[in-house]
Amino acid sequence: MRVSLDNPSTVPPPVGPYAHVARVDVGGGTLLMTAGQIAVDDDGAVVAPGDVVAQAERIFELIGGILAAHSAGLADVLHIRTFMTNLDDLPAYGQVRRRLFPNTPPPASTTVEVSRLFRPGAVLEVEVTAAVPAR
User: Fold this and answer.
1) CA distances from 96 to 2, 41, 72, 99, 102 (A)
2) Is the Cα dihedral 20, 26, 30, 31 positive or negative?
3) 8 Å CB contact between 61 and 73
């Protein structure tokens, strides 16, 4: 087993002292665990403050970039953990998720409401775990 941490160039640098992804290589493939992602642009500014749909789309774009840097994609996601500042936004967030994860069943999921996130205007933070078979 080999373990590594990475900040791929396919996404903006982390907004704090952490790695975007932890990678665990095992004999039959790779397990990827992303750090929580908020919707930021390439300069680190929050995208569409307060807009759950625009933020969800940007977050999954960032997650897709992190996964792509490790030869994975959204189809490899096993689990999604979401932190929301308002669970009333869940239906709108769910529409984005259904479009991006059309397979049945979709990935396992945990969603919780939090009082706030670390950047003003951010209404979602999402982290995923993905598994990639050896190719």
Assistant:
1) 34, 19, 20, 5, 10
2) negative
3) no
CB proximity list for 94: less than 8 A, separation 6 or greater:
none
Beta bridge partners of 97: none
pLDDT given at position 79 = 98
Average of pLDDT values for 97-115? Answer: 97
pLDDT of residue 134: 83
Task: Please give the residue range of the domain that contains residue 57.
Answer: 2-133
Cα–Cα dist 2/22, whole Å: 11
Q: How many C-beta atoms surround the C-beta of residue 21 within 10 A?
A: 23
Exposed e or buried b per residue across 100-111, where buried means at least 16 C-beta atoms within 10 angstroms of its C-beta: bbeeeeebeeeb
Report the pLDDT value the prediction gives residue 15, as an integer from 0 to 100: 83
